[in-house]
């Protein structure tokens, strides 16, 4: 309730030299407290005059702070919600990128497979002609199989005692008879290739058999014919070959009058 007018009225007294607590105590101890109180109230008024605007401003700023804090809290809530949405979108993005990379890898794998398939198809396309020719050749072999087998069995049964010239002559005579009887056979028939493979021939050569056609034919007759072979072998090549070939099969060798009769048992 102190006003500025009251303080102005008190100022002349407050400015007096003897208006203080010590002097008042000398006059009256009870009044001394009132003197000190009036000084304090005047001082309080001066201080409070400056403090009131500050308090008002403080209340205003506290109100603004509360409003700002409320806005901050609301903004924080929105930020948390947006962060959650961002996390969800980021997870979706990461999943989409992972799926995209997987699709890219699959596409690259498919591209490689397509390239390989294209190369294979192109390669197989080049084989089509060969397969067609092979198929036609197989059909011809089926048709000519009876005659070819007949020539092979005749060669094994009757060609053993003769040299290369007479063997060829026998084949020509047999082919002539087969033509008359309309028995089909292959004109380019290779009896050696029909009766033995190259790997076996190579093994025979390693065992000591010469590599000429007559020796290979003799080897075929020895190994394929059902009867025991008789080898007239002045150079000893046949003996060396048979001994090497049958050394693990219990070969027995009998010699008489310098003529070697060798039989595989």
How would you describe what is shown here?
By secondary structure, the chain is mainly alpha-helical. Among the domains are: 4-79, no CATH class; 144-246, Histone Acetyltransferase, Chain A. Helices cover 75% and strands 4% of the residues. The protein is built from 8 helices and 2 strands; from the N terminus they run ααααααααββ. A two-stranded antiparallel ribbon has the order 1-2. Strand 1 and strand 2 form a beta hairpin. Helix 1 crosses helix 3. Residues 257-265 have low confidence and may be disordered. One of its GO terms (molecular function) is dynein intermediate chain binding.
List the helices and strands and how they pair.
Layout: H1 4-14, H2 21-27, H3 29-158, H4 164-180, H5 191-195, H6 198-206, H7 213-224, H8 237-245, E1 252-256, E2 259-263
Antiparallel strand pairs: 1-2
Helix pairs in contact: 1-3, 2-3
Coiled coil: 58-117
GO cellular component, one term: axonemal dynein complex
Organism: Brachypteracias leptosomus (short-legged ground-roller)
Query: Which CATH class of the domain at 144-246 applies here?
Result: Mainly Alpha
Tell me the major beta sheet: 2 strands, antiparallel
Helix content: over 70%
- Cα Rg: 64 Å
Question: Strand order of the main beta sheet, please?
Answer: 1-2
Helix tally equals: 8
Helix/strand structural class: mainly alpha
Q: What's the end-to-end separation, in Å?
A: 149 Å
CATH architecture of the domain at 144-246: Up-down Bundle
Task: Tally the beta strands.
Answer: 2
| Overall pLDDT score | 84
Instruction: Estimate what percentage of residues fall within beta strands.
Output: under 5%
Unreliable residue runs: 257-265
Shape: rod-shaped
Q: Helix and strand succession?
A: HHHHHHHHEE
CATH topology of the domain at 144-246: Histone Acetyltransferase, Chain A
InterPro entries: AAA_9, DHC, Dynein_HC_stalk, P-loop_NTPase
Protein name: DYH5 protein
Domain Dynein heavy chain ATP-binding dynein motor region: 203-255
Coiled coil: 58-117
